[in-house]
Amino acid sequence: MASELYKKGKTLEMRKTFIGQSCRLFFSDDPVKILRARGQYLYDENGTEYLDCISNVQHVGHCHPAVTQAASSQMALLNTNTRFLHDNIVTYAARLSATLPDKISVFYFVNSGSEANDLALRLARQYTQNEDIVVLEHAYHGHLTSLIDISPYKFKKLGGQKEWVHVAPLPDTYRGIYKEDHPNPSQAYADSVKSLIDQVQSKGRKVAAFFAESLPSVGGQIILPRGYCTKVAEYVRAAGGLYVADEVQTGFGRVGSHFWAFQLEGEDFCPDIVTMGKPMGNGHPLACVATTQDVAAAFTDNGVEYFNTFGGNPVSCAVGLAVLDVIEKDDLRGNATRVGGHLIELLIQLQKKHPIIGEVRGVGLFLGIEMVKDKAERSPATQEAAHLVKKMKDERIFVSTDGPWENVIKFKPPMCFNMEDAERVASTIDKILTELSMEENQQAFKQ
Fold this sequence. Notes:
Layout: H1 8-18, E1 34-38, E2 41-44, E3 49-52, H2 65-77, H3 87-97, E4 106-110, H4 113-128, E5 132-136, H5 145-148, H6 152-155, E6 165-168, H7 185-202, E7 207-213, H8 228-238, E8 242-246, E9 273-276, E10 287-291, H9 293-300, H10 314-329, H11 332-353, E11 357-363, E12 366-374, E13 379-380, H12 382-394, E14 397-398, E15 400-402, E16 408-411, H13 419-446
Helix pairs in contact: 2-10, 3-10, 4-9, 7-8, 11-13, 12-13
């Protein structure tokens, strides 16, 4: 068992003293102290094992030996300023390029998804010479000031919406303005973006870009209706803007069938800019912006050098290359398809049994369970979702909630998540929801 410097109570006391209180812990009422991890499992100070359904950052599994070895070996040899010539950065860029459409062929390496999206914003504005940005309702693109400004999830709680930011409806066919019974929700939602662009232009303003996660996560693990992205890209480009695909949460094979979630739209769809982060380094700070030759040339022509001290350093790129190797060698995309598909089937069976499950949605190992008080009204079951999260923790399984009402149980586990894990998750949810239903029935009987 890994050693600890302090007992849990002391660690918590020191955290409250030295760490900003806005930096919140998982399970803040009863935090878990984690000392080591491997694969899809976390271990606390007592050696108790937890199944991790939260850590999409540890993409190929916690502490994968191939990744840790790559980092250690390169760190022992060289890690220096990225303005020295080195093979790792160009080798890594070439490997990433092979996973993307031919048009996306220029790379800027940074250290976080927030840095990537901030740079994408700069690229779009430089190329188009326009300012305004269109985003989706409930979107989150990062914690920098520039990204808080284009993240309704954040700015609605802070300084409000800037005049250059325009918010389109989230294409949620379960809870949105156009639901699953609409004859063509993808076109209807895309047309709402077109109407928004028309409003922007009527005010004499011009659109630089449309930003969207390829699968909106904070919005509630949303699967965009097919055809939506293609039509939106058409409308945005006609207005002189670019389409930015935020793959920070969803890239690197999480959807199983494709390497990038935007590819679910079809082979002919290609964004103008792709941002990536979280899973790239398996926990090592590594992120990237990928774009076209034309967009990159416009950024170069502004005459201002772009320099990132740590972005694309030899160690980061060695780690990134190792992650790509593991994805391929361990067939993690295939695993995401098989295990994710099995888990969805199990959850759909639970949906039929438990009325509190309004919808099960997802692809690969990007899944969500929307919990509702009433299936007809679709009223969010926020407290019940929190209860499920707490009880799952008691059963040594970590899950969390998302969505505007925090009523969506999300699953984005490490990609080594297996069939037995899926069975365990489903059976545990079944047990907890059965107990919850019995308790509610007993309370109703007493009343």
